[in-house]
Write a structure and sequence with these properties.
binds pyridoxal-5'-phosphate; five-stranded mixed sheet; PyrdxlP-dep_Trfase; PLP-dependent transferase-like; alpha/beta; disordered C terminus; Aspartate Aminotransferase, domain 2; PyrdxlP-dep_Trfase_major; 513 residues; single chain; Lysine decarboxylase DesA; 18 helices
Length: 513
């Protein structure tokens, strides 16, 4: 076959149709036959077969490439649709979104300018407006789709930084170049302001906040952790204290980041209290709802009360809207703040295009060429509707509440907090002496249980550290996961932990002697 027969165009539509049908058939068969979330393969086992492939020797046909893919990817992939995948914030995906994905990559619109995307630009804008309405933002709201929560948080903090710098200059009477002594201007240059900037966020917030601070030229030290209560929610009194201290010591708080759904605990910071403190201090409030955004369409919408008072919000549709990666957005209450990422290029989005009101999404994004990820959410809403998504999310939250009761009633386990969303942090807690040896052994038993479970492929759970000790974590995002699945996985964990303890406990060694 000639290379040109692989270009998708009017003459190859039939080739396209058959190729995709093969691929879809392959994946469908795989998904129908998956009996575990994972095969347990190790990198060392898998790497040689991938290294051995000669990338300069093509296989020519899609079937042959799919056959090969079976052994290097499909056979051993981690399958999030399996009810015993309980590890990270990865959701099973809804079929209308997968359909959208196939359409968007074939048409391949690029959402930077109208002349590369036409209708796609308007569809994305409609979805941003829809999300903003769900948040409760007014008519001045806007936003943009991004690659994920990390990028959404980065962009929100970039806007917060530049707005704060502008306000600092304005407060000092420096509004433009005219009439300002050179040394005064220098004093208020961005480079002078940056070292004073601080970001306040709870100690349970996502590490992408620190990454963003580094990328924004502040350094990770600019992020000051605000203590949480037992429930892993930011303590407003602690935030108030930190705001007052910054004020006293001449540090400029450029943003308070509240988390609506922490990655480990699913805890939602007290948004109304935080909003009140931000408004009083004149500080930008960002809400990281990467995980909790599904509440926007759930019967638990009230858990997000106060989110409409934020200046910016991160939502990850690829977490709680059952969308394929990537699908995320950053929303702002005041669209004017997006001007901090607006640059004009003569070849792409000249200022005269803006004057003619031609919609150019690149003016609002930190990306240039950008996927039409919005189409997946569009297809989802058009087929299932928002309530359909909300029902799925509500179901996993209900399941987490039941699983919490199960764990609470089981003496072998300790669970950290009652979930607000769908995560559970717990550990196997054997009856061991209450000393450092006992604690270390408990840590090892839990670490071992997680690894052994992963190696078996029977189920996948996550792990985290709480107050220096190793815990396990369930992140429930699959409505197909039953309470029986959860009970069965707990038995597997207990079994692996016990096995480790009987091999390593000083007590059992003594008995064996
Ligand atoms: C997952 C997550 C992020 C990062 O989002 P990505 O889409 O993985 O980049 C940020 N914040 C919170 C609270 C998250 O759970």
């Amino acid at each position: 076959m000639s290379s040109r027969s692989n270009l998708l165009n009017d003459r190859t539509a039939e080739h396209y149709r058959r190729s995709l049908a093969h691929g879809v058939e392959r994946v469908a068969a795989k998904i129908a036959a998956t009996d575990r979330p994972f095969t347990g393969i190790t990198p060392a086992e898998l790497a040689p077969s991938i290294s051995a492939i000669d990338l300069d020797q093509p296989l020519e046909t899609p079937q042959a490439a799919l056959d090969e893919l079976e052994s290097v990817y499909l056979r051993d992939a981690v399958y999030f649709h399996h009810p015993r995948y309980l590890a990270h914030l990865n959701c099973p995906v809804v079929i209308p979104a997968v359909l959208g994905e196939a359409v968007l990559s074939a048409v391949n619109s690029s959402l930077d300018t109208w002349d590369q995307s036409a209708g796609a630009t308007l569809i994305e804008r409609r979805l941003i407006q829809w999300t903003a309405d769900r948040i409760g933002f007014g008519r001045a709201a806007d936003g943009i789709f991004t690659s994920g929560g990390t990028q959404s948080n980065l962009q929100a903090l970039l806007l917060a930084r530049d707005e704060t710098c502008r306000l600092v200059r304005e407060a000092a009477g420096v509004t433009g170049a005219a009439g300002i002594a050179e040394d005064a201007k220098a004093e208020l240059s961005t480079a002078r302001i940056l070292p004073k900037l601080r970001i306040l966020t709870s100690e349970c917030s996502h590490f992408s906040i620190e990454k963003a601070a580094t990328l924004l030229g502040l350094g990770a030290e600019a992020v000051l952790p605000v203590p949480c209560g037992e429930d892993r929610r930011m303590r407003p009194a602690a935030l108030a204290e930190q705001l007052a201290r910054c004020e006293r010591e001449g540090e400029v708080v450029m943003a308070v980041v509240a988390t609506a759904g922490t990655t480990d605990f699913g805890s939602i910071d007290p948004l109304p209290e935080i909003a009140g403190l931000c408004e009083a201090a004149g500080v930008w409030m960002h809400v990281d709802a990467a995980y909790g955004c599904g509440l926007l369409v759930s019967r638990r919408r009230s858990l997000l009360e106060g989110i409409d008072r934020a200046d910016s919000v991160t939502v990850d549709y690829h977490k709680s809207f059952f969308q394929p990666v990537s699908s995320s957005a950053v929303l702002v209450r005041d669209r004017d703040t997006l001007r901090h990422v607006t640059y004009h290029a003569d070849y792409l989005n000249p200022a005269r295009a803006a004057e003619r009101a031609i919609p150019n999404q690149v003016d609002k994004s930190i990306q240039t060429t950008r996927r039409f990820d919005a189409l997946k959410l569009w297809m989802t809403l058009r087929v299932m509707g928002a309530d359909g998504i909300g029902e799925l999310f509500d179901e996993v939250i209900d399941r987490a509440a039941d699983a919490w009761k199960l764990l609470e009633a089981d003496e072998r386990f300790e669970v950290v907090t009652e979930p607000q969303l769908s995560t559970l942090v717990f550990r196997y807690l054997p009856a061991l002496p209450d000393d450092e040896t006992g604690a270390a052994l408990t840590d090892q038993a839990n670490l071992h249980a997680r690894e052994a479970l992963f190696a078996s492929g029977d189920a996948i759970v996550a792990g985290t550290v709480v107050e220096g000790r190793h815990y396990l974590k369930f992140t429930l995002l699959n409505p197909e996961t039953t309470l029986d699945d959860i009970a069965a996985v707990l038995e597997l964990i207990a079994g692996h932990a016990e096995q480790h303890l009987s091999a390593h406990s000083p007590l059992s060694t003594a008995q064996a002697c």
